[in-house]
Amino acid sequence: MTTPRRFDGRRALVTGGSRGIGEGIARRLAAEGAHVIVAGRSLGPAQEVAGEIGGSAVQMDISDAEATMAAVAALGPLDVLVNNAGFDDFAYFTDTAPQQWRALLGTNLEGMFACTHAALPAMQQAGYGRILNIGSEAGRIGSKGNAVYATTKAGIIGFSKSIARENARYGITCNTLAVGPIDTPLTDAARAVPVHGEKMVQAMKDGTLLRRLGTTEEVGAAAAFLCAEEASFVTAECLGVSGGMGISA
Ligand SMILES: NC(=O)c1ccc[n+]([C@@H]2O[C@H](COP(=O)([O-])OP(=O)(O)OC[C@H]3O[C@@H](n4cnc5c(N)ncnc54)[C@H](OP(=O)(O)O)[C@@H]3O)[C@@H](O)[C@H]2O)c1
């Protein structure tokens, strides 16, 4: 199968692009011709991926909104923004504390706000932009042991639809991927949770119609579609990449 070149001449920022799903998306956009800026909390791993795909790297901890806004603005105009960086903190809700809630909200939601806020003015001026936010099926159907995480992922859908509404007149689309269980270090973290870990990952697989974990390449392919110029009539959508997990959403 020949990979198309839908991103020749395009500049894309992928947060959390140094591993897992973000890396899969960064690799796919680069393979299709984009200059990808790989953002990582540590510069080293981001530089490693960027070096392999012919992109560039930037250090960014998106839990610091002000610093993130400055860092994104300093990159100059972007054609594509993929808000992927995020984390989960597996625990039953009654075992969590406000500090954990704030950490999840600060990264998964405020980090996305900061990147989007900084990237939008140049996109509006250019009259073109593709923003893709990485959500989760947890945000559509809920998830045991992930109440606050699921809340952040539901919030991403509302944010994406609102940004899509506000920016349609500028030729900017904004969509969400409701990702299902994908084989990444985040899934490894779930597996490592004492007592319930393995069961949790098995339940994730069983929750899909396809009875398996997805791959980062499969997410990269869906992301590339929504970030391509040709997806110009697709906005405010939430696309499940989850082996059918969201069937009842
Ligand atoms: N894996 C799944 O099954 C699954 C399912 C649904 C949704 N998702 C979503 O997909 C996205 C990527 O997940 P993944 O599975 O690829 O996870 P991962 O392997 O843990 O990678 C997460 C990435 O986000 C970065 N990150 C986390 N906190 C950050 C922060 N404060 N500032 C900057 N970067 C930060 C990490 O950077 P460091 O390397 O510096 O930690 C890493 O590059 C997340 O939004 C996740 O919620 C994943």
Automatic annotation (TrEMBL):
SUPFAM superfamilies per record? NAD(P)-binding Rossmann-fold domains (SSF51735)
Quote the Gene3D superfamilies the UniProt record gives.
NAD(P)-binding Rossmann-like Domain
Q: List the GO molecular function terms.
A: oxidoreductase activity
- Give the matching PROSITE patterns: ADH_SHORT
Listed Pfam families: adh_short_C2 (PF13561)
Give the InterPro entries listed for this entry.
NAD(P)-bd_dom_sf (IPR036291), Sc_DH/Rdtase_CS (IPR020904), SDR (IPR050259), SDR_fam (IPR002347)
- Gene Ontology process terms (BP): monocarboxylic acid metabolic process
Q: Which domain of life is it from?
A: Bacteria
Alphabetically list the UniProt keywords: Oxidoreductase
PANTHER family on file: 3-OXOACYL-(ACYL-CARRIER-PROTEIN) REDUCTASE (PTHR42879), 3-OXOACYL-[ACYL-CARRIER-PROTEIN] REDUCTASE FABG (PTHR42879:SF2)
What's this protein's family per the entry? Belongs to the short-chain dehydrogenases/reductases (SDR) family.
Q: What is the protein name for this chain?
A: 3-oxoacyl-ACP reductase
Instruction: State the organism named in the record.
Output: Paraconexibacter algicola
